[in-house]
Amino acid sequence: MGVAIPVGIYGAAFGAAANTAGLNLLQTMALSLLLFSGATQFAIVGVIGSGGAVVAAIITGALLGIRNGFYAVRIAPLLQVRGLRRILAAHITIDESIAVALAHESSDGDVDGDSATRDKKNSDLFKGFWFTGLGVLFFWNLFTFIGALGAGLLEDPARWGLDTAVPAAFLALLWPQLKNNRLRIIALTSLLLSLALAPFLSAGLPIIATVLIAVGAGWRVR
Amino acid sequence: MAGAMSSFDIWIVIAISSVIMFLMRITGYLIPQKLLQGVRLNQIITLIPIVLLAALVAIQTGTSGDEITVDHRLAGVAVGAVTLYFKGSFILVLSLSGLTGALLYNFL
Predict the structure, then answer these.
(1) Which end of chain A is more exposed for a tag (fewer CB within 10 A), N or C?
(2) Residues A151 and A205 occupy one common structural domain
(3) Interface confidence (ipTM) of the complex
(4) B84 at interface of A, judged by CB pairs closer than 8 A
(5) How many domains does chain A contain in total?
(6) Same-domain status, A161 and A205
């Protein structure tokens, strides 16, 4: 729940932003429930609020959301879900659930070790994914509702340090995954590339572009 | 405002965007795992969340819209990084960075 609450409270800022952009309560809640991807939702209401076109809103949203597809490819073989649960797992495949699950995967360094340790690690990964994903889904929607009703107090997340705590939370979840210098350099390169591209590419693209670093670094068979 | 969307247009955006999002997510689960078993592809897929999360931290910390910005967030996240370096717990990282960010934002 460590991540779900601060991220969830951010939902209030989304509710307020959607309200300001001219969405009604039902539309705002539909985005948080059915689309359920923070950055994408902010981008879409941003385009709507600035008088943009339907197609522009859809494309901007998709560009920000595509990383969830990449996450799904990574997490699917680890979760091994079937049937209806797969649909739910897909819906809660977000930055937070993936970051927590993978932080558990790498918690104690090396991959081998006895089977008991491995089982424990798998169940932590599993729990991390489901608790975080469902927790964010719950709190994000709860606070979207509160924000959309006009909770002025929560409207500016920066006042409460939330705009700082959220990236710090992602950093904390990334940290245990950076097990050696090679991975640290890859992460640092990605950080710099996204910042370098930010002034030139539209929202979402500077993040997705770093997949090229993963391709480059993973290309050589080791 | 000139190009403002009608309520119907907004519903169209919501419906299409939600379907696209779901398709992007479910595709990742439906790709046959046999196709993803090459060593090279495996290495790349393993690295993808690492590069995406690193970029996400960078963008959330150091940009506003399409501008690079140095503000309270950078200071707070830097405090978080130091806390992580000294093996501080997750909740300590969150508290110290959030507190730093909030203090600088409200009182500077």
Answers:
(1) C
(2) no
(3) 0.90
(4) yes
(5) 2
(6) no
Asked if pLDDT for residue A163 goes beyond 90, the answer is: no
pTM over 0.90: no
User: Do B25 and A67 meet the contact criterion of CB atoms below 8 Å apart?
Assistant: no
Residue A113: C-alpha distances to residues A7, A110, A118 (Å) = 34, 8, 7
Are the CB atoms for A208 and B24 separated by under 8 Å?
A: no
Give the model's pLDDT for residue A106.
Answer: 61
User: Which tokens in the block code for residue A115?
Assistant: 């089977």
Q: Give the mutation candidate from B40, B47, B74 for the A interface (greatest A CB count, under 10 A).
A: B47
Say yes or no: A153 and A190 in one domain: no
Helix (H, G, I), strand (E, B) or coil at A32: helix
pLDDT above 90 for A10: no
Query: Rounded to whole angstroms, how far apart are CA atoms A162 and B45?
Result: 30
Same domain for A43 and A137, yes or no, is: yes
Which residues span the domain enclosing B21? 1-30
